[in-house]
Amino acid sequence: MGVANFTFQMFNASIDTTDLDIIGVSKSGPKLLQELANTTFTGLTGNFRLVHGQLERSTFQIVNINGNAARGIGFWTQENGLLRDLYSSSKSKYSTSKSNLGSIIWPGDSTSIPMGWDILTNGKRLKILVPVKDGFNQFAQVIHDLSTNTSKVTGYCIDIFQTIIEKLPYVVAYDLIPFPFSNGSSMGSYNDMIDQVIYQNYDGIVGDITITANRSLYVDFTAPYTESGVAMLVPYKDSKDKNAWVFLKPLTWDLWLTTGCFFVFIAFVVWILEHQINEDFQGPAGHQVGTSFWFSFSIMVFAQRERVLSNLARFVVIVWVFVVLILTQCYTASLSSLLVVQNLQPTVVDVDKLLKSGENVGYRENPIVYGMLKQMKFDDSRLISYKSAEECDVLLSKGSEKGGIAAAFDEVPYIKLVVSQYCERYTLIPTLRTAGFGFVFPKGSPLVPDISRVILNDTEVLKMMEIENTWLPPKSNCLDSSNSLGLDSFWGLFLIAGASAVLALLIFMVMFVKRNWHVFASPSGSLREKFKARFRDRNTDDGHNETAAVETLENTNFLLSLSRDFSQNNDDTNNEQGMPSAEQGLSNHVDKGCPKK
Description:
Elements (H helix, E strand, L loop, with lengths): L7 E2 L15 E2 L2 H9 L2 E4 L2 E6 L2 E2 L4 E7 L2 E9 L3 E3 L33 H5 L4 E5 L10 E5 L4 E5 L1 H11 L7 E5 L11 H9 L5 E2 L14 E2 L8 E9 L14 H22 L10 H13 L13 H30 L3 E3 L4 H7 L3 E4 L2 H9 L7 E4 L2 H10 L8 E5 H10 L4 E7 L7 E2 L5 H10 L1 H14 L19 H25 L1 H4 L6 H10 L9 H32 L4 H12 L4
Parallel strand pairs: 9-12, 9-13, 17-18, 17-19
Antiparallel strand pairs: 1-2, 3-4, 4-5, 6-7, 7-8, 10-11, 14-21, 15-16, 15-19, 15-20
Helix pairs in contact: 3-13, 5-6, 5-7, 5-14, 7-14, 10-11, 17-18
């Protein structure tokens, strides 16, 4: 612009004007405005240029910086948003999609988006502690190879941790470091290991670490990956009854009573249906009663000598044989279980009984379980510690009277492991609830929420259950106790048998009354006497024995048929000699042998 006049022109202002009217106007203003409009230069945010008095909109280039290298992957403009090519002719509407940009190369020359964990750890491998123990190595075990001076870590907790880390959406590099002395023994307790994490000497702990409120004040735990709680392990006792009356126990008293009543009822029904036509059910009254009961009760063991002739009696017997067959089979199976299968019951069912009895109790060397036993008011003199499942089995086998223990207390995963090995000897009784096992990390570790989400994921629960079944197999091949059979299981069978017998009895009574109606309708004598007389009378209403009449008629028909064949060949010869024919002879014989009407 050169040298310009920087004086200001003043305006006349009245008293009523505002203060803006008294501000002077530069005489060089128009010239300065023209020079600014013609000024262009490149600044930090791009080109500086005024268009129609307004600053021109800037275009930003997006740069991917990886180490010391930089590469452009696109642009951003106020009109179009994100663009791959600034001078592309196919510009669409305003876009914020990263698909319009070039590929981004992340640290490690990877196109996968990291979670930021490498940045937080500065690329260092995590140092994860693993406990060294004398017993219960199924959870975590350190095997040291003297030839190579290396250690191998295995166990249930290790497999769970490795499976979860593989499911994270980013890579976590770590080393499992045992926590022993140089001689291989444990360097300290679990609390000492947690102190190492608090002092930032290590980055985490993987093992059977119990989640407690006190520990969570100094470190972060993931979600529990095992069943929680403290349980009591107690021996079984065989409560199998060995008295002389054990054969009565397969059936309850109401079933025994119902079965006996039905044997009597079936005997009565069969006698009614058979005594008129069957000689086996005839004779003196005592003989009839004995035969009827013998027939009914002997169905249980063998086939009867007595035959039944009435179809109704056969129907009743068939149904009753079916019922008796099912009853005997169930009775045999139940009695076998009572005599052979052990009926195992726990020796102790609650903690109060242990406190009152004064017996010794055991616990795994663990300050958490020991503290819980002290809170339950157990005396120190009665507490015996153990280190392994085998040692626990020895103490329980001895019993409290011989220097052992009456029950053992431990966390549920350890108790389940003992039960799986000795399921025929011991059982588990839940006692107290705890938080379970969890992985330990420093306060504020970003791994804790990510690992917890994987543990709580339903799709990963099945995988963790497979790992648990591998290292901590469930109990199998253990005997179950048996129960007595009740009437509730058989009342349907008795209903069928009873209904069948009653139906047969009703049919017989209808037929009996119909056959003897002419006797009952006669005016002579009382109805009761007529009924008793006709019921005791084994003869038919025409005075002939029904069975004998049937047999005689069958024999007569058979002989008559033979005589016809014989008479056809010899009829002429017999007539010439004046001899009677075979048919006539047989007829005479039948007339002589059969009573006349």
